[in-house]
Amino acid sequence: MNPLEVILRVSLVFLFSQLVLRLLGRKELGRYSTFDLALIFLLTVCLRRTLVGDDDSLTTGFIALSTLGAWDRLFSWLSFRDRHAARLLEGRPLELVHEGELVHDNLRKTHISQKELLSQLRGQGRDDLRTVRKAFLEPNGRITFLFRESEGASSH
């Protein structure tokens, strides 16, 4: 296969997969179940032929892997150098709790239930939402909590 065709195919599939993962939402990226791992594995199997066609040569495999690495490096560099690019590529934290009160619109947007949020809070050794000053769904899919100063802890 022509090396430029490999680079183009890998680039298109990589960019499309980034779009799909972004549309799935951050919550899904922050927790991996066996279903998620199976999906990721099967995704790579399904896309293999799309990336390199019938070409099993080492050269094509190296070109494909190098192209993926280059895209990842470029996105990391852009995110580091430009806050607007970082916001576009990585997203922003989304507030889920404000001064002990749930931000229902954001919980709905992210498909996080109150039960799930409280489970995450218990993972921090707390069980009362009133002790939370703010909670955020981070771009990496994790939930972080900022606790009231009177509780003696300031963050997760």
Automatic annotation (TrEMBL):
It is a multi-pass membrane protein. Its main location: membrane. InterPro entries: DUF421, UPF0702_alpha/beta_dom_sf. Keywords: Cell membrane, Membrane, Transmembrane, Transmembrane helix. It holds the Pfam family DUF421. It is found in: Cell membrane. Residues 84-149 form the YetF C-terminal domain. PANTHER family: UPF0702 TRANSMEMBRANE PROTEIN YCAP (PTHR34582). Belongs to the UPF0702 family. This is DUF421 domain-containing protein. It comes from Archangium minus.
